Amino acid sequence: MIDPEDRFFSEGQGYFGPRDNPITETHCNVWDWDQLRMVKVKGTAKLFPPEEDIEISVFAQFADLLSPEVRAITVNNDGLLTGVSTDPEEDDTIFIGYLPFSAVESLADSPTIQYSKLQEIDRLGPGVDLLSYEDESGNPHKVAFKFNPLGKPLRLHMAWNELNLLKSLPPHPNLIPFDRVVLEDVESRVIGFTTKYIPGGTLANPKVPFRFEWLQQLTELVNFLNLELGIMHQDIAPRNLLLDPDTQKIILFDFDWAAHGKNRLMNNRDDVTGVVFTLYEIITNDTHFTSIPHWDRTINMVQDISEWACNRELDSDVSKFRSFLNEWVATRKSDRDMERYLNAPSQLTWPSLPEPPDYSVPFEHGTDEHGQTNWVTGMRERCTALEKGQYCFRWERSPQRRLLKPTEKDSKQV
């Protein structure tokens, strides 16, 4: 089940008047990762001050009780529900023109599966479900399904890059195995992908003993990604390192921030630095460095700490881990390291995210100075796409709590 702290996020507050006026009408869009939908929460500036995200706690009270057709709710200054709306015009969800599989050449040789053939087992986190299916021979598979239901440009590019990267990675004992491209059932558009499900949990769990060989595996894997494939993961952390109970090896996953060559490469987010902070966090269970933006973090912040307080079971002394780490860092933090990365002998490449053909359909967008209708193309809201007769894949689903434990209260929808 999705962690309650991760379930909702707010798009911010929109004020129809002065923010400091308590009676100013205020609209806040709240996204629900459990039900995969956005609902507009309407109230006043008194209840919804700027940048405090009060709307999340307000909406959370009603989220599991609202019918799927509700697009907006209105609350009073005490946060109590006073009205609901099913008007499609209240829906500010951004339309996503998912690409037809037949038009994506970079995925042409990938195995696929229809969305309807996947059976839900659990919801692991934002944009990640645990599912099962039977292959063409009737063999059962348990997989992690990763998808992007948000029409934000950055997220669209991240999803495209991760799918193409994982599909292109060669088999490796420490990399998450790619499984299939997931297609929606009506027009066979690409809506996500599956990977093998590894049930061992991550190294973010401080109760998992840590082995010296896992540090060796991680540094060897980073060398392979960086210096052979020209891939920079850029998000190495204990939460992204799985423990495979079958092989007793660590598995790196979650490549949505990854760079290939100079493409999407970020300052101070290199994998060597990531390994240093990861090992420090694993050994000490000190997570406060994760709250520091990557552009403000330097490797010396932890390497210069004379003693790392050990708060996890290890199979070797801390000094052995640190000595090995320091020697590895010295070999990688050289003047030629970036040159070696950019000139990796087996670089992976793929095309940039294509413009979906759906975005070429013109739609009305206000009027010009002469009162004439402005016709524009590009991204649009879902309600606009529906008005134009465009096909919209719908992610909305019932709350998991209601699926797991149906009660008389849950059956009553507002």
From TrEMBL:
GO terms for cellular component: chromosome, telomeric region. Its EC number is 2.7.11.1. Residues 118-414 form the Protein kinase domain. Component of the EKC/KEOPS complex composed of at least BUD32, CGI121, GON7, KAE1 and PCC1; the whole complex dimerizes. InterPro entries: Kinase-like_dom_sf (IPR011009), Prot_kinase_dom (IPR000719), Tyr_kinase_AS (IPR008266). It comes from the Eukaryota. PROSITE patterns: PROTEIN_KINASE_DOM, PROTEIN_KINASE_TYR. It is an enzyme of class 2 (transferase). One of its GO terms (molecular function) is protein serine/threonine kinase activity. The lineage of its organism: Eukaryota, Fungi, Dikarya, Ascomycota, Pezizomycotina. SMART domains: S_TKc. It comes from Penicillium alfredii. Keywords: Chromosome, Telomere. It catalyses: L-threonyl-[protein] + ATP = O-phospho-L-threonyl-[protein] + ADP + H(+); L-seryl-[protein] + ATP = O-phospho-L-seryl-[protein] + ADP + H(+). It is found in: Chromosome, Telomere. This is EKC/KEOPS complex subunit BUD32. Component of the EKC/KEOPS complex that is required for the formation of a threonylcarbamoyl group on adenosine at position 37 (t(6)A37) in tRNAs that read codons beginning with adenine. The complex is probably involved in the transfer of the threonylcarbamoyl moiety of threonylcarbamoyl-AMP (TC-AMP) to the N6 group of A37. BUD32 has ATPase activity in the context of the EKC/KEOPS complex and likely plays a supporting role to the catalytic subunit KAE1. The EKC/KEOPS complex also promotes both telomere uncapping and telomere elongation. The keyword Transmembrane helix does not apply. Its main location: nucleus.
